[in-house]
Amino acid sequence: EVQLVESGGGLVQPGGSLRLSCAASGFTFSSYWMHWVRQAPGKGLVWVSRINSDGSSTSYADSVKGRFTISRDNAKNTLYLQMNSLRAEDTAVYYCARDLVAAHDYWGQGTLVTVSS
Amino acid sequence: QSALTQPASVSGSPGQSITISCTGTSSDVGGYNYVSWYQQHPGKAPKLMIYEVSNRPSGVSNRFSGSKSGNTASLTISGLQAEDEADYYCSSYTSSSTWVFGGGTKLTVL
Questions:
Q1: What is the pLDDT averaged over residues A91-109?
Q2: What residues are paired with B105 via a beta bridge?
Q3: Between 1.10.357.10, 3.20.20.80, 2.40.50.1020, 2.60.40.10, what CATH number should domain B9-109 receive?
Q4: Residue B22 in this model has a pLDDT that exceeds 80
Q5: Chain A residues with CB-CB distance to B36 below 8 A
Q6: Given an 8 Å threshold on Cβ–Cβ distance, is A45 in contact with B46?
Q7: In this structure, how many other beta carbons lie within 10 angstroms of the beta carbon of residue A41?
Q8: Smallest Cα distance from A105 to chain B, Å
Q9: Which end of chain A lies in a sparser environment, N or C, as judged by fewer CB atoms within 10 Å?
Q10: What is the band of B1 on the pLDDT scale with cuts at 50, 70, 90?
């Protein structure tokens, strides 16, 4: 069974940093591209970032480019999102998702990030 | 990258069919057959319903179907059931090697 479990969310002050993790199991993690998608409270889904299977290629939404870094450790079956210079508008539930032909076929349960003083 | 355009809400009675539209540009929806659709119930993670415009993942009911014409993709749900009431989002790959979601459509089953 495919499982994605996010962790690392919490309350952080504006300008602060946080690192999210996504532990994967039930599939060959190193064979799949992975994504981060976020959802602000009461709002819609917003794509954040994507990484290819070996970590050599990444892409980001304009809203997070230069502040967020996606990475992965295939030996640990874990996806990461390093978030720096956090802003109030980054407050959201952050989901990791597996890529299937440019779609997102499995999602984690999400981890809430709150940016507030 | 601007969000894809979806109607804010649609409704239908049990047994009826409804269609949700998703309008983008030639740089996303119109340029690639990488349109996907997601169902999200309150407090839950999204669920993939359609990928590559019209393909259904294993386990998704054949009451759900997808299509595309030009810059607009569509999700049709036939034989509407109470459990179909949820938010629906479209998504597309873009020419910038990024992805974009629609604003979401709330489906109400009357």
A1: 95
A2: B88
A3: 2.60.40.10
A4: yes
A5: 102-104
A6: yes
A7: 9
A8: 5
A9: N
A10: confident
Report, as an integer, the average pLDDT of B90-106. Answer: 97
Query: What residue spans define the domains of chain B?
Result: 9-109
Q: Give the C-alpha separation, B108 to B110, whole Å.
A: 6
The whole-angstrom separation of Cα A10 and Cα A68 is 16
Q: How much is the pLDDT for A75?
A: 98
Neighbour-count burial of B69, counting CB atoms closer than 10 A to its CB (0-12 exposed, 13-18 middle, 19+ buried): exposed
Query: Residues 6 or more apart from A75 whose CB is under 8 A from it?
Result: none
Would you say the C-alpha torsion B39, B27, B8, A50 has a positive or negative sign? positive
What is the token pair recorded at A40? 């602000």
Residue range A73-87: average pLDDT?
Answer: 98
All residues of chain A having their beta carbon less than 8 Å from the beta carbon of residue B52 are: 101-103
